[in-house]
Each structure stands twice: as C-alpha cells, then as structure tokens.
Amino acid sequence: MDERVKEDRSLLVYVLLGFVTCGIYSFYFLYKFIKDLNTVCEGDGKNTPNIFLVMLYTILTCGIYAFYFYYSMGNRLADNAPRYGKNFEENGTTVLLWMIFGSLLCGIGSFVAMNILFKNMNELARAYNFGSKGNMGAYDNRAGQNEYQYGTNYENQQYQNPQYQNPQYQDQQYQNPQHPSDTPYRAVPQGVISCIAGAYQGNQVPINSMESIVVGRSSQDANLVLEGTKLSRRHCVITYYDDTDTYGVTDYSSNGTFYMNGSRFVALTEVRLQPGTQFYLGNRDNIIQVG
C-alpha cells in the first residue's frame, strides 16, 4: 500500500482541538507532522527527531531547543521544495523571526509561524501524493483489450530481476493467452528499457505503448525494483509513446536523475527522450537506456 501523507493541515483545527483536549491533540498533531515531513523529505540526508525527543531536548534546554526545532523544519521544507517544482519564499529564518518578535504581538507571531509551516507542508504533501503510484497509470491488456487505465495500481507487475534478454519486437502475430481460440491479432507496439549498469546489468524490460513503469528501490512503490544507495523508493517513471517512438521520464527522487553529461532532470517534469538515450539514477551505479 502506498504511504500517502496528509495534505490538508489546518491552523484552525490545530488550535481548536488543542484547546479542547488541553494540549494533547497538539502533541499528536506534531507527531504526525514530523512523520510526514521525514517521508516527504526522505533522502535529503536529514532526519527530524520525533516529538518525544523534541520534548526532552526542549526541557533540557529550558525551551531554547523548541525555537531551533521550528527553525530547522522551516529550512528543511524550503530546501526540499525544488524537488517538487516549488519555491518557498519563507524559510526557517522567517519562522524563527515570527516566533521571537511576533511574541510581542500578544503571541500572534507563533500562530503565523505555524501557519507558514502548515502551508508549505501541505504544498509538498500534495506534490508528493500526486507522484505516488496510486496516481499513475497502468496498461491493461485483459481480455485482449488495450486500454490505458488512469489510477490503476501495478499489482503483480514487479520486474524484479527481469529475464528479458534480447526481446524481439517485430510486428508479429500471436494468440491472446486468455482466449487461445480467438483470431490472432497484431502485437501491441513495444519499446524497451535496458539496464546498462547495476545489479541487473544486461537485462531488458519491454514496455507497451502508453505504459508507465515505476523505477525505484521499494517493491511497494515501484515495479522495476533496483538496488542502490542513491535510489529513492519511487525514483522515476518511464512511459513509452509509440506514436513518436519516444520515452517520457519523470523524476520523483530526492537524489536526482541525470543525463550522462551530469545535467539533472527537472523534478516532477516529464522529459522526452529519443531511443538510445542513457541516464543514471542518483549516481552511476544504476544506468538506464531507453530504446
């Protein structure tokens, strides 16, 4: 099951439920906020401590750590925004200034600071959820009907250690395996994804027209599962377009997808590649070629 994060946090709900529960809800709210923050920013080399450690450090430092905690969260959100095609004007310094000097405005500043964090977190959460497997398409060839299904999961389609050596993609005829008595029909146009470097070097995966294959290190989030320290759970998505014989690649990773010359793909933006193009995932341990 995909790990989706909450994308509709509300300052009003935070304040009201915190008041009604005498502050208990506020701790639960921050617990979930931190958990989702670590999920959305996974791979940036940082880890926001859980709420229990935050409480402990705050007590030990007589409250000083709390200011650093909110400052670091503001910076982390701003630093990870470009990964999702975002650009936040507010960062940790903005949050900290509102919390310190805003306290002179009858405490209103702390609410402004929290609202900045909630707003920025909601934007990244929506972008993260949009890129999740549940929002991508899958190619459905059941009953011999070729139909692109939006929002279909990739169950039973994991290409772990694929054994598609030198596949033949001629315009050949074949029988529908689910209806062997049916009249033969022509094969669906196919492309190919080749593993040039990595654990599955030399293997090839066929990809149908308008099919999207998720590449990553998690078997729950990807159906072409690779190994590598720089790979994200859901690193990129590759789609084949037979009408133009091109491949669309969209980067969803934290460590980046790169052309062989070192240029980084723009995050969350599909790039069209010609057959024979190679690129690497995070580092050169995993090199992919399309076509």
Kindly state the percentage of residues in helix: 25-40%
Order of helices and strands: HHHHHHEEEEEEEEEEEEEE
Q: What would the principal axes of the Cα set say about the shape? A: elongated
Number of strands: 14
Across the major sheet, the strand order is 6-5-14-13-11
Strand content: 15-25%
Span from first to last CA? Answer: 31 Å
Largest sheet: 5 strands, antiparallel
Structural class estimated from helices and strands: alpha+beta
Measured on Cα atoms, how large is the radius of gyration?
Answer: 23 Å
How would you portray this structure in words?
- Helix 1 packs antiparallel against helix 2 and helix 5 packs antiparallel against helix 6.
- It contains 6 helices and 14 strands.
- It has 2 domains: 120 residues, no CATH class; 137 residues, Tumour Suppressor Smad4.
- About 18% of the residues have low confidence.
- It is elongated and about 65 Å long.
- The strands form 4 sheets. It has a 5-stranded antiparallel sheet, with no helix packed on it.
- With 291 residues, it is an alpha+beta fold.
- The longest helix is centred in the middle third of the chain and has 23 residues.
- Strand 9 and strand 10 form a beta hairpin.
